[in-house]
Amino acid sequence: MKRLAFFLYGVAAYAAFVGTVLYAIGFVAGVLVPRSVDSGGPVTPVTTALLVNLGLLALFAVQHSGMARKGFKDVWTRVVPRPIERSTYVLLSSASLALLFLLWHPIPRVVWSVGSPAGRVALASLAGLGWLLALFSTFLINHFELFGLRQVYLAARRKELPPGRFRTPWFYRWVRHPLYLGFIIAFWATPTMTVGHLVFALGMLGYILGAIQLEERDLVREFGARYLAYREQVRGLVPIPRQFQERSRDLWARIEAK
Questions:
Q1: Which residues contact 110 (CB under 8 A, 6 or more apart)?
Q2: pTM listed for this prediction
Q3: I need a surface site. Which of 75, 146, 220, 240 has the fewest CB within 10 A?
Q4: pLDDT for 114-132, tens place per residue?
Q5: Virtual CA dihedral for 69, 70, 72, 76, nearest 10 degrees?
């Protein structure tokens, strides 16, 4: 019964995650949801809206990144059974995002707006590709383990989760964090950028850059020289070939010498 309860809990947490991500797409794009980054929330002074929104972004960043750290997990699993640790993390991450969606204060002042219909379609399509890149990247590294389903499934079968293996499939050969790159594209590729949307995009970009540093520190501890070598060969977010990067450095060195 306990293993069955763990499994059902993991499925429920995964369902909450799916619903939250679908709402996030509508929230950022401003379609099919009652409250989006630009509409549906309370009308307040800009200063109030900024403080509330930054607080919500900070809450999400602390929860999402802090709970993912090994030190926190070691303490947390003394309270939460290990098979549902990841599912609990996923559930609380979904809750913090849902809270952000619920309490977000729009700031509708326009920063830029693309008037061309073709340009608007192109940017909206690029945002869609960003979401697809993020989703596809999760399947490359084991989607169901990332979101806790594999852990509860194995626990239901009385099996242990095998240790993680270092792999670099597909996009991971060109960029170390394609998942984060997909989110950045999705958040920034918008035909109309308002102040509120810009705050959201900047806040999430800051969180992603900070999370990368913490995540890579953990990966170096886990995989050592193998990950260090990978980090030397593959860019973090911008898939620029090393050969082009080295040629650019040589070119700038010659220019500065003159």
A1: 192, 193, 194, 195
A2: 0.89
A3: 75
A4: 999 999 999 999 999 999 9
A5: 130
